[in-house]
Structure formats: structure tokens, C-alpha cells
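Handout for the seminar on molecular recognition.
Each group receives one record of this type.
Step one: identify the two inputs.
Step two: read the structure output and locate the region that could contact pyruvic acid.
Step three: write two sentences on what you found, then compare them with the reference statements printed after the record.
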Amino acid sequence: MHKTPGQLFREAVAEEQPLQVIGAINANHALLAKRAGFRAIYLSGGGVAAGSLGLPDLGITGLDDVLTDVRRITDVCDLPLLVDVDTGFGASAFNVARTVKSMIKFGAAAMHIEDQVGAKRCGHRPNKEIVTQQEMVDRIKAAVDARTDESFVIMARTDALAVEGLDSALDRAEACIEAGADMIFPEAITELSMYQKFTERLQVPVLANITEFGSTPLYTVDELASVNVGLVLYPLSAFRAMNKAAENVYMAVRRDGTQKNVVDTMQTRAELYDRINYHVYEEHLDALFAKQKQS
Ligand code: PYR
């Protein structure tokens, strides 16, 4: 029988330890990630803000901004997609419910919801504020209750380490699991041994966010496996590289009056067509018109 995105995500977590989850900023990158062999992809909230809207990761984006990118990715790529829904896009349990139902409807496999206040900040920036443990537990209860597909994964993210310390983060994670969270994402971890504290205490998969230029050292898959981390996230690695490449091209064309000096840094037309199956679409069109001509 056809597997749901949530089932595919859970299977991948069970089979690849830890599961590498790679950020895909758009549908094209989702296809590139699949081609590279990844079994799960990620839509970053900071990425939607910066990439789709040109805005900082400060709780400015809304549900529809994220859903647009989710739909575009799931329309062309069958890899299970983990989506960052920030604080749930609204204070009420009904807002959280609407977010969960929409994610499922638009083909996401999993989502993570966090315990920052609505006016959130990037997890790796100072001056974060978090809601009470009870309010976070209520967010999880609302999310779990709203699921229209039991396999859809609800991941609880806690930003408590930087605000209240490790014990609070551990307590919050445990409380979220009791409320029905399937997986835990402790944000902005600073030492490998901290992951071990989570994995020893919790019975569900724990995600490590290995984002560049942040608070967490760039631990390898082997290092994270040694402390039983279940998933490794690289939210914006390709996005950062893509942006640097684009800046380089813009500067060169403007400076040199030609792109000739940077052509060798570009994906070729043939490579692009290959990555998006251009020829398959074209052949389909030709066959369709040929049929029409015959009839
Ligand atoms: C982000 O990339 O936006 C995360 O929250 C990890």
C-alpha cells in the first residue's frame, strides 16, 4: 500500500542512524538533495524568511508563506519533508491545529514546533525568550490532537538551554513527550555530552541541529552516533553556498561587463535540464501533440 510521508520519515529515522536531514530551500534543491542520496529533507523557517521573503528569522513569516514553499517542494519531490513551523503561527490551540492540518494536507511528513514566545528569534542568536513549560505542553497537546494522520510526526523543539539551562531543557523535553511529542529537538546545544543527557533520559529520537556559524560545533555523523542522536539536521548549508555563489556572479557581471569569467562556476543548461527532468516533460508534450495530429 502507498506509504504516507510520515511513515516514510519514521522508517528513515529507524533505518539510518542518525538520519541526515538536509535543508532544501526550494523545489529545485529538493530534487538535488534526492539525487545526492538523502532520505529526508527540511524546510527551514529561517530559510523561508530569508530566502522566500528576504526577511530575518524573527517570527515575521506566516503559515501561508511556509505552506507555499511546502507545496512546491512536495509537488515534485517524494522525499519526506520536515517543516519548521516556528511557534505554531498563532497563540490559540486552534491556530496550532490549523497549522498541523495544513501541513498534512500539503504533504509534509513532520513538523517541529518550539517553546519560544511568538516574537521569536533565530535559535542561535542572543536574547531569546521562552513560554512556560505548561504553555509549551499545551502547544504539543493541541498539535497531537489536531493530527488527521497518525503517522505525521510532531517534533518538540526546546530553546530552553540558552535561557534556563540544561535541566530545564531536559524537563521540558520529557513533558513534551508525555504530551505526545514523537521526537525532540534541543536547540543550540554547545557540547556533545549534552546530547547524551537527552538520549539517556528520553525514549524518542533526538535531533541535532548542525547549523553553520551558530552555537553548536559542527559535529560529524560519527560523533553524533556515539551519543545516540537520532537525526542530524543541516538546515541552510546549501542555501548559504548558493547565496555566496550568486553574490559572486552578480559582482563579476557588474564589474567585468560579462559573465565569461564565472561561467565555469555555473550549472550548465544540460545539467539543469537533467536535474528537473526537462526532457521527460518535453517528450510527453511531443507525444501528446503527435497523438492529436494523428487523430
Ligand atoms: C531554522 O533553520 O530556521 C531552524 O530553526 C533550524
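Reference statements: Residues 5-236 form a domain with the TIM Barrel fold (CATH 3.20.20.60). Residues 190 and 217 are 7 Å apart (CA to CA).
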